[in-house]
Amino acid sequence: MLSSSSTAVKTLPLKRRLCFLLKLVCFVSSVLIFCEFLIYYVVIFQCRWPDVKGGAHMGEKETSASVLKAIILADTHLLGEIKGHWLDKLRREWQMERSFQTALWLLQPDIVFILGDVFDEGKWSSPQAWADDVRRFQKMFKHSVFTELVVIAGNHDIGFHYEMTTYKVNRFEKVFNFTSGKLITRKGINFVLVNSVAMEGDGCGICRTSEAKLVALSHKLNCSQQKPNHSNKRCRDVEKLPASEPILLQHYPLYRKSDAECTGEDSAPPEEKNIPFKEKYDVLSQEASQKLLWWFQPRLILSGHTHSACEVLHAGKIPEISVPSFSWRNRNNPSFIMGSITPTDFSLQKCFLPFESRVFTIYCAAGALLVILVLAHVQLLTPPFYFAQRLISKHKAV
Asked: Which of the listed CATH numbers 3.40.50.980, 3.40.109.40, 3.60.21.10, 3.40.640.10 matches domain 31-226+235-358?
């Protein structure tokens, strides 16, 4: 009888320790699941598709069928084998994968545009490294057959102009089915894809081919927008396209002096805003910018490259939106653009992703609480607790 009771006493502390250990595991698991999975749903769930004016005059069914829902993001910069540390790769790619997959599941876009610099080392990666980068990209940005993915070339994908070669351009085009001067028409909306790296204007082979395609496409679009009674001989045999003013998609922004006029919480830091941009490096040259505006007279221009947000007006009427980087390696507050687009109108809304600083704060707070719980369990914090209890009991007695 005595032996059985002593055994029960010995077993009790063991059960308490196991119970405490189980609670710690549940606590740590809950924090990890929230910070690495659930937080993306909590944040992106708050994003809403913007309303477009054209939909106000149509029925609900007609509106949903005629409005194109597009997600636009830029500068994912998947790290390569040369400069990318494995831990940095693991962290950043997990963040972007969870954000992208969560956005697809919650928002159900019709099409997704990535505005260049998909890879960080595409400009110098070997065939084997390129294949590995492509494989990781396809895993991260996998999508259903109901969502189309369109990728634009950036300078980190095919190199700056002086690094760009036919081999690198063809390698990118083969994977992403991208060519400069390519037209994508969805729901009567014309999107023009531009290889802005090839807009150097120095007559290089790739540049000449790219500009020739853009000029030919410009002619088609301009002829398609003319009224039948104003058609001329040059447009008689031209294939007619939807008479919708095009939207330009490119990596480099059009020429602007700096980011001094850019505003918003995800614009360039104050110390960088007044740094002058270098033509053909930070932005397109003035000449190339004027060519694109003159050729296409776009109603909207979407670009990336600077990693910061900016909105400018060209010729006083044509808006250009610079989309910030989608990678936490470049920003504490990445985001993407949600666009509701019709053939005659568009409306854009920004969707911010979880701030990395907030995730870090949650981890620090959880770590501090975990330390306190462990110390309390081993009774290192017992005296202060008793002291607090005495103060409370005295207060009640009074």
From this structure: 3.60.21.10
